[in-house]
Amino acid sequence: AVLALDNGLARTPPMGWLHWERFLCGTDCAADPRRCVSEQLFVEMADRMAADGWRDAGYEFICIDDCWMAPTRDKQGRLQADPKRFPSGIRKLADYVHSKGLKLGIYSDVGKKTCAGFPGSYNHYDLDAQTFASWGVDLLKFDGCNSDSLELLAEGYRRMSLALNRTGRSIVYSCEWPFYLRPVQQPNYTEIKQYCNHWRNFYDVYDSWSSIRSILDWTALHQDTIVKIAGPGGWNDPDMALVIGNFGLSWDQSVTQMAMWAIMAAPLFMSNDLRHISPQAKCLLQNKEVIAINQDPLGKQGYQIVKDKNFQLWERPLSDRAYAVAVLNHQEIGGPQNFTFSLTFLGNGLACNPACSIRQVLPASRDWGVYSWISSLSVEVNPTGTVLLKV
């Protein structure tokens, strides 16, 4: 068994809300007070998360991404929040978030500067970890921009992990380590899992189908190296941001993102505006059956088992000898198509032996009944859509 980061955290993939993607690096609060990265934004999202069922559905972290900082450290060399946008400071914000039964995440960078040019944690790992702990932070997303070398990058990720553990506070550690290594060398996932709770492998998610599709394609292409390392304590992060409820995805594509992030055992961090979200998007994001698949305690990541013309068949082993199965239609033209496959394909032939019950979870939940091991299943799937089943 692989040693996970020994902080006892992230036994299942973390869930929450993140400002990056939807709110980017909005720092002009005078021009756009409702959409800038500010204390007000996080207070309002925390209110919505507590009041609108998000927290009760499992979304517990509310995460600040890049652009929260003042342009310089304080006189003691500590990071500080932008005083105009965060007038009460991060400690007060953390207290407020905790009062709502939620946890606060924050962002820093392994290099000298963050990706947006704010002060990074290079040479300040212990100080920054202590600062975050003293503020009551519960998660750190640690980016990888502006590091001078791959050696310094790796050393920085290791050092921040140890520094967080030394604070004595439980802080989930979200890394971008393999993403920054990959262009040059194959990441050592065994090592990364010893230091991180989840780790980013691929580009930022965008509010577009081409972005979702490229993440799925990349994951399938590299599944032989990444699937086996995922499990309780450490997870592959296909970029956690769920962009459901924004502008770029159709309904079927939103279903695909939700279904496939559950199959991939991905951290589920929404990046949307919870103050203005459609009932349909809310219903999908709070779907208890999909969340239960994502959070399954066995902690095995799913993988692609069949690729056939426009269709992909994925499975994920679940506890109690169940499987989650996703049928994804890649075609972007025409109408719904049927995909037929033998149940003997699933679970190396064991998922349905001698018989199994099948339930459709998405796009809508309904029972399909009991099937024998040698049956074939025919599934109708909309273009760019996914049908998610539990077997």
From TrEMBL:
It is found in: Lysosome. Residues 299-385 form the Alpha galactosidase A C-terminal domain. Its main location: other. It catalyses: a globoside Gb3Cer (d18:1(4E)) + H2O = a beta-D-Gal-(1->4)-beta-D-Glc-(1<->1)-Cer(d18:1(4E)) + D-galactose; a globoside Gb3Cer + H2O = a beta-D-galactosyl-(1->4)-beta-D-glucosyl-(1<->1)-ceramide + D-galactose; Hydrolysis of terminal, non-reducing alpha-D-galactose residues in alpha-D-galactosides, including galactose oligosaccharides, galactomannans and galactolipids. GO terms for cellular component: extracellular region; lysosome; membrane. One of its GO terms (biological process) is glycoside catabolic process. The keyword Disulfide bond applies. Its EC number is 3.2.1.-. GO terms for molecular function: alpha-galactosidase activity. InterPro entries: Aldolase_TIM (IPR013785), GH (IPR017853), Glyco_hydro_27 (IPR002241), Glyco_hydro_27/36_CS (IPR000111), Glyco_hydro_b (IPR013780), Melibiase/NAGA_C (IPR035373). Keywords: Disulfide bond, Glycoprotein, Glycosidase, Hydrolase, Lipid metabolism, Lysosome, Signal. Belongs to the glycosyl hydrolase 27 family. PANTHER family: ALPHA-GALACTOSIDASE A, ALPHA-GALACTOSIDASE/ALPHA-N-ACETYLGALACTOSAMINIDASE. Catalyzes the hydrolysis of glycosphingolipids and participates in their degradation in the lysosome. This is Alpha-galactosidase. It comes from Acrocephalus arundinaceus. The gene is Gla.
